[in-house]
Amino acid sequence: MTDIIHLLPDSVANQIAAGEVIQRPASCLKELVENSLDAGATHIRVIVRDAGRTLLQVVDDGKGMSPTDARMAFERHATSKIAQASDLFQLRTMGFRGEALASICAVAQVELQTRRPEDEIGTLLEIAGSEVTRQEPVQCPVGTNMRVKNLFYNVPARRKFLKTDQTELRNLLAEYHRIVLVNPDVQFTFVSNDEILSELPVGTTKQRIEAVFGHSSKPFTGQLVDVSTRTELVNICGFVGKPESAGKNSQQYMFVNGRYMRHPYFHKAVMTAYAGMLQPDHNPSYFIYFDIHPDAIDVNIHPTKTEIKFADEQAIFQILLASVREALGKFNVAPSLDFTTESRLDMPQMALGNRSFAIPQIQTDPNYNPFKSQNWRSNHVSQPWERLYDNIPCPASAQEPEPITPLFTLPQIGDDTPLLQSQGKYIVVPADGGLLLVHQHRAHMAVLYRELAEQLRSHHGITQPVLFPEVIELSPDDLHTLQSLLADLQAVGFILEQFSPNAYSITSVPALLGQQNASETLLQVIHQVQDTGSTASDEWQKTVALSLADRMAIPVGKTLTDNEMRDLLRRLLQHTDSRYLPNGQTIFTILTNDDLQKYF
Ligand code: ADP
Ligand code: MG
Question: Which mutation among 101, 144, 148 tests ligand 1's pocket best, with the greatest number of atoms within 8 A of CB?
Fold first, then answer.
């Protein structure tokens, strides 16, 4: 009996593996340019012929390779970038698998010239079908010059699989754009059949976007607004298109830690921020750059996949949604938030004892209900969160504005704005027009309320499993109420399982709940919902959100650090549209300079 199992020759194994990594010229371009970036290049030239079929060359001025490394580089799993499995979680380079060059040389003829700055002389290497056919010293500039010729020359099936030159060139450029848009500090050149298709100087991200998509007659970035948010978890910056610039051909890009990614869930967050602002079939452009600790993401181990997993997707969804909304909101309502820009804005006055306090004018929809999702689709300029609190006195219509003298500008909380906490209860904030006195617990409630209302709508509450599930026993009345609230509770992160006919076990709680006792919180929610006497589910939702916000918010008496105060105030003032909570409680009040004067 003869054995029938044998090991494939390396050349065949390499060809099979190559199919995974190198599917078309564009994937080859990606691998080579990423290597150049990893090598610290400041200028990268891509030169293709016949859409990369006959030639795909990448020339860089990076750190080059020694003669031994040049040869090693084409071995499978040869990499200088990681040494052990744990390094995978600390990735700061584009490559790490050590299989790109091995794959490329299995399916093409490769010629490499490379020199390190410290070497007098460089190395020339020729490889075809994984076999080294030539290696010798060569005079060449510092850096690496990689010529990949006749891609798939030895794999006819792959060759046939390629599309027209036009399509393959489009794929090459798409891949090129995904790289250049996140590396504006590197100069790039793209040459196709001796024609320069792209020449990108070093610049800012915005300049790079302009250089890629702009036309001299029509600036592209004029249609973009800035997004910028820093949190402990993630920093998000970039640009989103103004709603009216949305169209059928939009440019949508997301990057994480310098790497292009596709992320349908985060895409949804962006699109949600545009709800109600876009015409049917119109899509906004966006360029969003995430910066996050490498620990918190899982770069897809599959070389050609651009999906990336995040440890805290739901939290990032919320942060992204809020920052895009803020960006769009600033652009839509920013002038009216700046009270000093005077009369061209219609500013309603809000009675405040004997003084007047201008609040930004907001277009209102009298039928608006933040909990009814269909309203989000209607075509308003203003945004749902602006109208979350429906007890704001608003002008009936936007008639001829009455010129008024604004008395007070809500302060921007800068890193050095001095803040004072009083009695563990109030925060005193200096502002140009006087002093802002903020009730810390209610301010936090307002922030949380907004967040919870959004979660109730989108079902994206952040939930946290509990180690020892509590069991909550209920009276028939309470049981009935709880059962009607189950879906809403789940939306904000409570997961309950029926334990017995009149008891539920609480297996997960909203992450926002912190150390609060879960069953007590639930009972409070149930009783407050019963107290409303309402049977309308959106009324319940409002009560659920408010009651939970009350439980979750910083308690009175808690001493806050400067940073905590700053963070709270920023979050509060970011979207302030009312000084009152939905239950009528005052969140902040204002002592104008005139008021202060009166005391002296
Ligand atoms: P990886 O990038 O995953 O490490 P590759 O097969 O793409 O694997 O490259 C193998 C090794 O070859 C790299 O780790 C690097 O040391 C070296 N290398 C490849 N391209 C370049 C380049 N342009 N400049 C300098 N070194 C390079
Ligand atoms: Mg690589």
Answer: 101
